[in-house]
């Protein structure tokens, strides 16, 4: 069972806005997840840093999900996270993609579902949410 963190459901993030998430990574972390989307069934961005999970080591796996249907996995090999450390991640919403800002690195993930607004955010796994802000 994956521990479920807080859920936000009325963010109203539109292009030009950003969401900043801060928290603590568990000392024995295997992986954690952040989901951004319309709701729990329509995820524009499934952000999944894996320390050691599903055959991936120190890899960030991103995907999208439409109801029960996952898209193609996108992998980033830059891995700025440490077990027992803190993490600050900013998701910038653009017209056609989401820019993920990590410490010293950024990448974009396409808005495959063409969501006009991102209302939903949750965290799961070996991560404790400390603060969330959006502008």
Automatic annotation (TrEMBL):
InterPro entries: ConA-like_dom_sf, Galectin-like, Galectin_CRD. GO terms for molecular function: lactose binding; laminin binding. Keywords: Lectin. GO terms for cellular component: extracellular space. It holds the Pfam family Gal-bind_lectin. It comes from the Eukaryota. Residues 5-135 form the Galectin domain. This is Galectin. It comes from Climacteris rufus. The gene is Leg4.
């Amino acid at each position: 069972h994956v521990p479920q963190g807080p859920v936000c459901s009325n963010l109203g993030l539109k292009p030009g806005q950003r969401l900043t998430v801060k928290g603590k990574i568990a000392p024995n972390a295997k992986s954690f997840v952040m989901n951004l989307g319309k709701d729990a069934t329509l995820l524009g961005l499934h952000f999944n840093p894996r320390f050691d999970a599903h055959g991936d080591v120190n890899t960030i796996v991103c995907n999208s999900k439409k109801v029960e249907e996952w898209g193609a996995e996108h992998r980033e090999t830059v891995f700025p996270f440490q077990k027992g450390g803190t993490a600050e991640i900013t998701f910038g919403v653009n017209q056609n993609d989401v820019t993920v800002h990590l410490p010293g690195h950024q990448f974009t993930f396409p808005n495959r579902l063409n969501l006009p607004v991102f209302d939903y955010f949750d965290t799961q796994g070996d991560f404790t949410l400390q603060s969330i802000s959006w502008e």
